[in-house]
C-alpha cells in the first residue's frame, strides 16, 4: 500500500516541480487529487485526453478533477475537499491562491491540521517574487549554474533536474513530510514556502565549504569536481560515445591508473596538483579515444575505478544493472523510472497511468459528500 497510504493530497495543477512532487507522494501510497484547468494549459505539454494521458508520467496514479477556479463556486467546492485533506500543494505566483479565495488563511480555517505547500521559483517574498522565471534562471541566481560546462564557453544549461526537481520538488516533498509528522503531534498545520532558488542554493553547500577553504575557485572547469581534473570528467571514446570517470579518492585513483595501464607512469603520481591537470587530461583524452565505449566498460565497469558509461535515455533502461534492479519499468507501453526510494515493508508502487483531464471530476466530488444534484449544478455552471 505504500508508507503514505491513507494520506490525502490536493494538488492544484501546475508545471515543473509540483506535478513531480505529487507523483512522488502518489508512488508512496498517498491519494492525490489533481485539480486542473477546464481549459488548455499555458504550455500545452500536459494535454491529456484518451490514449495520450499515459505519456504524462508525472501524473501517474492521480485522480483528476477539472475546475474553473476563477468561479466562486469552484473555490467553495475545493474548500470542502480541503476539509478532509492532509496536504495541499500549489505552484502559482505569490498572491494568486489568495485572490481565488484559496489561500492559506481560508484553507487552514477549513482544516486546521492541513499542511499547505507553496512551490515557486523565487519564494513568497523578495524583490523577484512576482517575476517569471524557469529552472535555468533559479539555479543561475543560486550559484548552482555557473560551474557547469567548459571554461572557454558560457555555462551549460542542464535539463530541468537541478532546479525544478532537485531544488524544487525534492525540498517541497521533504518539507511536506516533516510538517505532516509535526501536525500529527501538534494538531496544527502550517505553510511551507518552498522556492527553487532556495533549494538550489542549499544544494551548493559542499561547494561553498570547499570554496571558503581555498579548494574551489570561480574559474569554470578548473576545480576537482567540475571537469577541471583529469580524474573527474567525461571522455569521448573511439566510437563517438562517452564514459564518465570520478576517481576522487586516492585508492580509487590508483585503481583507475592500474586498469588503464598507467600505474607506472610518474606523470600521473600527483593526483591533486592542478597545474598538471591540463596536460594529464590531454593524455587521458587520447587514451580513451583508443577504444570503443563497450571495450572500456569491459575493462573498468564494476571496478573501484569509479567508472560508468554515459547513457542516453534509450540506453539507460537496458543497462544490466538497471534491469537487475528494475530501475525502469513499462506501464501501458510507456517506459519510465520505477518508484524510489525502496521500502522494505511498505513498498511504493505506481497506481495506474495518468488520468485524462477531468476524468474523475464527478467521482471525486461524490466521495467528498457532494450530492448528484450538487454535481449536476456545478457542471451546469461550467465550474467542473
What is the name of the CATH class of the largest domain? Alpha Beta
Give the number of helices.
14
The proportion of residues in beta strands is: 5-15%
* Structural class by secondary-structure content: alpha/beta
Strand order in space, largest sheet: 3-2-1-4-5-6
Whole-number count of domains: 2
Helix and strand element order? EHEEHEHHEHHEHHEEHHHEHEEHH
CATH level-3 fold name of the largest domain: Rossmann fold
Low-pLDDT residue spans: none
Which overall shape is indicated by the principal axes computed on the Cα atoms? elongated
The assigned CATH architecture of the largest domain is 3-Layer(aba) Sandwich
Alpha carbon gap, first and last residue: 30 Å
Helix content: 25-40%
Radius of gyration: 25 Å
Mean pLDDT: 94
Number of strands: 11
The CATH superfamily of the largest domain is Crotonobetainyl-coa:carnitine coa-transferase, domain 1
The biggest beta sheet is recorded as: 6 strands, parallel
Outline:
The chain is of the alpha/beta class and 384 residues long. The chain folds into two domains: 8-203 and 329-380, Rossmann fold (3-Layer(aba) Sandwich); 232-236 and 242-309, formyl-coa transferase, domain 3, CATH 3.30.1540.
How would you describe what is shown here?
The protein is α/β, with parallel strands linked by helices and 384 residues long. The protein has 2 domains: 8-203 and 329-380, Crotonobetainyl-coa:carnitine coa-transferase, domain 1 (Rossmann fold, 3-Layer(aba) Sandwich); 232-236 and 242-309, formyl-coa transferase, domain 3, CATH 3.30.1540. The strands form 3 sheets. A 6-stranded parallel sheet has the order 3-2-1-4-5-6, sandwiched between helices. The chain has a 3-stranded antiparallel sheet with strand order 7-8-9, with helices on one face. It has helices at 17-27, 72-82, 96-99, 104-110, 135-142, 162-186, 196-202, 205-212, 250-259, 277-288, 293-300, 320-325, 361-367, 372-380, and strands at 8-12, 31-37, 63-67, 87-90, 115-120, 190-195, 232-236, 242-246, 307-309, 328-331, 334-337. The chain contains 14 helices and 11 strands.
Amino acid at each position: 500500500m505504500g508508507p503514505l497510504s491513507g494520506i490525502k493530497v490536493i494538488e492544484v495543477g501546475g508545471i515543473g516541480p509540483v506535478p513531480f512532487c505529487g507523483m512522488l507522494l502518489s508512488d508512496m501510497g498517498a491519494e492525490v487529487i489533481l485539480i486542473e484547468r477546464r481549459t488548455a494549459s499555458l504550455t500545452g505539454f500536459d494535454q491529456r485526453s484518451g490514449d495520450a494521458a499515459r505519456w504524462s508520467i508525472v501524473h501517474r496514479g492521480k485522480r483528476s478533477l477539472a475546475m474553473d477556479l476563477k468561479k466562486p463556486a469552484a473555490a467553495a467546492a475545493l474548500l470542502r475537499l480541503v476539509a478532509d485533506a492532509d496536504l495541499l500543494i500549489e505552484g502559482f505566483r505569490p498572491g494568486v491562491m489568495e485572490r481565488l479565495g484559496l489561500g492559506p488563511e481560508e484553507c487552514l480555517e477549513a482544516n486546521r491540521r492541513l499542511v499547505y505547500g507553496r512551490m515557486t521559483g523565487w519564494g513568497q517574498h523578495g524583490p523577484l517574487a512576482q517575476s517569471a522565471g524557469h529552472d535555468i534562471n533559479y539555479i543561475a541566481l543560486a550559484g548552482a549554474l555557473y560551474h557547469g560546462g567548459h571554461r572557454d564557453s558560457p555555462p551549460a544549461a542542464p535539463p530541468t533536474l537541478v532546479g525544478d526537481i532537485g531544488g524544487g520538488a525534492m525540498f517541497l516533498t521533504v518539507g511536506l513530510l516533516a510538517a505532516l509528522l509535526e501536525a500529527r503531534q501538534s494538531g496544527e498545520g502550517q505553510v511551507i514556502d518552498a522556492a527553487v532558488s532556495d533549494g538550489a542554493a542549499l544544494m551548493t553547500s559542499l561547494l561553498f565549504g570547499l570554496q571558503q577553504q581555498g579548494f574551489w575557485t570561480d574559474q569554470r572547469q578548473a576545480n576537482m569536481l567540475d571537469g577541471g581534473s583529469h580524474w573527474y570528467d567525461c571522455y569521448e571514446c573511439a566510437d563517438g560515445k562517452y564514459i564518465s570517470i570520478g576517481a576522487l579518492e586516492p585508492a580509487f585513483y590508483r585503481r583507475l591508473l592500474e586498469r588503464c595501464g598507467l600505474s607506472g607512469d610518474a606523470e600521473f603520481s600527483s593526483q591533486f596538483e592542478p597545474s598538471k591537470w591540463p596536460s594529464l587530461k590531454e593524455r587521458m583524452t587520447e587514451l580513451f579515444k583508443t577504444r570503443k565505449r563497450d571495450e572500456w566498460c569491459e575493462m573498468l565497469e564494476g571496478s573501484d575505478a569509479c567508472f560508468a558509461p554515459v547513457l542516453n535515455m534509450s540506453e539507460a533502461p537496458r543497462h544490466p544493472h538497471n534491469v537487475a534492479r528494475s530501475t525502469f519499468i513499462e506501464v501501458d507501453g510507456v517506459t519510465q523510472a520505477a518508484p524510489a526510494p525502496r521500502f522494505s515493508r511498505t513498498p511504493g508502487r505506481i497506481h495506474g497511468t495518468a488520468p485524462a483531464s477531468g476524468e474523475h471530476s464527478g467521482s471525486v466530488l461524490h466521495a467528498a459528500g457532494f450530492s448528484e444534484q450538487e454535481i449536476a449544478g456545478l457542471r451546469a455552471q461550467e465550474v467542473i
